[in-house]
């Protein structure tokens, strides 16, 4: 595999350098330009540092909206998330907003590079040039690109789960993670932002396959430990979040917004469904969970290699992305690892489709989305807006009903 890539090494490196430079130029030197390109609109990092300040200095973390360069936005993360963001508050008070944004962007870039290296190592490739090419490919994918430009934490949370779940056994047992029980990093990620709780399904299936519950227990322990750490400092805020704020999805934005890429969003854009939309959504959620669970079980039962664990956990991530009432376009960073897993398990056409979807096929970013116009879209716009969902449905169907991934000589 490596030798066949050598002839493309130099042109790929040149293209990767130009790609990374282009991304950095639009992010580091351009203030908000024409949306939907959204070149450098780091509103979330502005909410992060303000949320951290409120966590320590006030009791209204979830009761107020925070000023950003785009709009007044709420803080929607668990209390432990606010605690984790505390260094951003310190940096802001010492050096100002611009430096805070730059530091957070640098962390995102370094994490993206680490994920790229990790995925290449799973493919058996150890080459600095191809690592940089993989980094550029991830960076230019729409979910990662917009995660960087709005200052989101998605890539970092994904990295925690990837390193927790898909490390080859030899690497995990010899590195620093040998001291961290399986599941703990995923639990910590879920304490920062609740969506990684979906990986409890992965660990539950792993328990069924291996007869060992340690991954699930590790995740529960990591989540409770991190959440409990926040409770020590601000118990009232923690109680408010887990008894009230958690159940108010509308705080995050309009469900029908074009860049909300979820099943619920598709249904909300069809006003003719009326109250039936909720019933259809619940049925769809149940079907997705069942289909993904069957697919992940079949994959892990076939082979517990690092490739298959990567594929299974990437499929499980689709449960949160598809079933959550709100899955913003930048939440879909898990499509990157899914594409790599599809390629490594010999599902090349699906991998190529996924690569198209996260680049030129991210149609939801370019559809009309002003003044509730989504409610009047023609049928073909609804189809384009659901491209990620259609791709996810096909992939899930293939692994829940079709041929299992092949073992490869590079499996660990």
UniProtKB/TrEMBL annotation:
What the entry lists under InterPro entries is as follows: GT87
Recorded source organism is: Corynebacterium glutamicum
**GO CC, alphabetical:** plasma membrane
Q: Which Pfam families match?
A: GT87
Q: Which domain of life is it from?
A: Bacteria
Asked if the Swiss-Prot or TrEMBL record annotates the protein with the keyword Cell membrane, the reply is: yes
Principal location: membrane
Query: What is the name of the protein in this document?
Result: DUF2029 domain-containing protein
Indicate the family of this protein. Belongs to the glycosyltransferase 87 family.
Membrane topology type, per the record?
Multi-pass membrane protein
User: What keywords sit in the KW lines?
Assistant: Cell membrane, Membrane, Transferase, Transmembrane, Transmembrane helix
Q: Quote the subcellular location field of this record.
A: Cell membrane
On whether Transmembrane helix is a keyword of this UniProt record, the answer is yes
What GO terms are given for molecular function? hexosyltransferase activity
Q: Which residues cross the membrane?
A: 12-31, 103-124, 179-209, 215-233, 279-299, 311-329, 349-367, 379-402
């Amino acid at each position: 595999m490596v030798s066949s890539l050598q002839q493309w090494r130099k042109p790929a490196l040149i293209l990767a350098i130009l790609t990374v430079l282009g991304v950095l130029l639009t992010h580091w030197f351009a203030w908000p330009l024409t949306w939907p390109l959204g070149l450098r609109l780091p509103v979330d990092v502005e909410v992060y540092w303000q949320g951290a300040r409120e966590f320590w200095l006030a009791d209204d973390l979830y009761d107020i909206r925070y000023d950003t360069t785009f709009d007044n936005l709420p803080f929607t993360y668990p209390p432990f998330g606010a605690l984790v963001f505390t260094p951003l508050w310190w940096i802001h008070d010492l050096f100002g907003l611009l430096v805070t944004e730059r530091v957070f962007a640098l962390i995102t870039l370094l994490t993206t590079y680490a994920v790229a290296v990790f995925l290449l190592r799973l493919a058996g490739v150890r080459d600095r040039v191809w690592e940089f090419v993989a980094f550029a490919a991830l960076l230019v994918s729409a979910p990662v690109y917009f995660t960087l430009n709005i200052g989101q934490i998605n890539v970092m949370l994904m990295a925690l789960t990837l390193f927790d779940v898909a490390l080859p056994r030899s690497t995990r047992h010899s590195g620093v993670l040998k001291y961290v029980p399986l599941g703990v990093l995923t639990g910590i990620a879920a304490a920062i932002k609740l969506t990684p709780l979906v990986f409890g399904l992965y660990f539950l299936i792993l328990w069924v396959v291996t007869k060992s519950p340690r991954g699930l227990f590790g995740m529960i322990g990591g989540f409770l430990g991190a959440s409990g750490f926040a409770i020590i400092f601000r118990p009232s805020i923690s109680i408010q979040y887990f008894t009230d704020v958690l159940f108010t999805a509308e705080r995050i934005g309009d469900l029908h917004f074009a860049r909300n890429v979820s099943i619920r969003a598709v249904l909300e854009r069809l006003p003719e469904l009326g109250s039936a939309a909720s019933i259809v959504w619940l049925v769809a959620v149940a079907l997705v969970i069942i289909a993904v669970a069957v697919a992940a079980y079949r994959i892990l039962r076939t082979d517990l290699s690092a490739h298959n664990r990567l594929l299974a956990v990437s499929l499980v991530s689709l449960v949160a992305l598809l079933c959550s009432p709100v899955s913003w376009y930048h939440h879909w960073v898990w499509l990157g690892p899914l594409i790599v897993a599809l390629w490594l398990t010999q599902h090349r056409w699906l991998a190529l489709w996924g690569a198209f979807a996260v680049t030129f096929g991210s149609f939801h970013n370019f559809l009309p989305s002003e003044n509730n116009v989504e409610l009047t879209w023609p049928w073909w716009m609804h189809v384009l807006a659901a491209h990620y969902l259609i791709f996810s449905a096909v992939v899930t169907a293939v692994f829940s009903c079709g041929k299992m991934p092949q073992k490869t000589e590079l499996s660990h």
